[in-house]
Amino acid sequence: MTDEYDVIVLGGGPVGENVADRAVQGGLTAVIVEGELVGGECSYWACMPSKALLRSPQALRAAQHVGGAAEAVTGDLDVRAVLDRRDSFTSHWQDDGQVAWLESAGIDLVRGHGRLSGERKVAVTLPDGSVRTLTARQAVAISTGSDAAIPPIPGLHEANPWTSREATSAEEIPESLVVIGGGVVAVEMATAYAALGATVTVLARSGLLGSVEPFAADLVAEGLRGLGVDVRTGVATKSVARDADGVTVTTDGGDVRAAEILVATGRTPRSGDIGLETAGLPAGRWIRTDDTLRVPGVDWLYAVGDVNGRVLLTHQGKYQARAAGDVIVARAKGEGVDDERWGRHVATADHAAVPQVVFSEPEVAAAGVTEAAAREAGHRVRAVDVEFSSVAGASLHADGYRGRARMVVDEDRQVLLGVTFVGPDVAELIHAATIAIAGEVPLARLWHAVPSYPTMSEVWLRLLEAYGRQSA
């Protein structure tokens, strides 16, 4: 072990791991500073455990909607088995495997809390309380992620609410759960816990899934209610009180009682105690970067992943990490920087081609921008919708399949700006849309991308046909 490296990375989640890995692959030395589990939020309290909780109920519902298979399903969901499977995906909250991967990749690890202490310097408070100072010859990359935001609702903090961490790691399913919020975490955890046997109430003051197409949010609300979830939109939470039997949530529409409460109202950057002031930056805020992920005015400092506030998704953070690691190497070696639009050293997709899946009932898979966002950005667009009932593959996939697809077309350039799919198992369709958007594939060329029959991908042909009819 040494105290001097080419690159120091604060944060050992997937984003920090990728920054360090690209740096090492480029011939630099790198160290990760991590105070919790190597693997980060996604591995232990977000992406992996949440999808494990959702998958078993989803598979059961899928079987129940296919004739022949439905008749074979005679038992109920085994909740304990679902939780055990979830635990296996988190490695029972042990990071031995992740640490072994760091070692195999040639990346050093220092456990402790790291803070910037000067130019290219990081002071690490080790578990025994001592402080070790590391120096970066080239760059420091901040990849500390984000935390769940707790809104200033009277009594909420004192009620010791669940956040996404507790919801994804719980070992018992409460009899009832009230969820404050209407975003992705709120929707997915309401879906999971309703399927696992809890009576769930969702209090969404601003509605559900405000970043997706409105029709998608409406179908998700309908799906949640079909699972027995009490979805209340436009309802403001006034106060929260906990007693020995649970919590009382007072809203402007009456009180809600539940055994447990989950707050899912957004995220806040994990940047409050990492020494940003030594670089002339405000603490506790999103760290602004250019498209090479470098902090303007501080040529040795990068912010990658959630902490920069660009796109709070693990896959986008890892994409940023690949760009950041590669550009750090290029700058260290005095090589040219490919920072033009769609260059290898920039995160252009953050602005134009972000994919996301909400693992709700039904699923929402979207890439690019919504129709409203495209118009707001000044594009002349046309939105084209088709129902999945027109797609033979969807009818085969599930009896009575319901869903909808939309593509948002830039009328001037004849390329796609956004695509949204809603329906059971649409997640695996979205990468084709992401490629079409990122590649700026002309609609005339998309006609030659022939979907296999009979698959759900035939929805692409139906969208193009609908566009053609509108243009006639």
- Total DSSP E strands: 21
Shape descriptor reads: globular
Structural class given helices, strands, pairing? alpha/beta
The amount of beta strand, in percent, is 25-35%
Our count of helices gives 15
Describe this structure as you would to a colleague.
The protein is an alpha/beta fold. The chain folds into three domains: 4-39 and 95-147 and 268-349, FAD/NAD(P)-binding domain, CATH 3.50.50; 164-265, FAD/NAD(P)-binding domain (3-Layer(bba) Sandwich); 362-471, 2-Layer Sandwich (Enolase-like, domain 1). It is 32% helix and 25% strand. Strands 1, 2, 3, 4, 5, 6 and 16 form a seven-stranded mixed β-sheet that branches. Strands 17-18-21-20-19 form a five-stranded antiparallel β-sheet, sandwiched between helices. Strand 5 (121-125) and strand 6 form a beta hairpin. Helix 3 crosses helix 7. The longest helix is centred in the C-terminal third of the chain and has 19 residues, at 314-332. It is globular, with a radius of gyration of 24 Å. The chain starts with a strand and ends with a helix. 46% of the residues are buried. The model has no long low-confidence stretch (mean pLDDT 97).
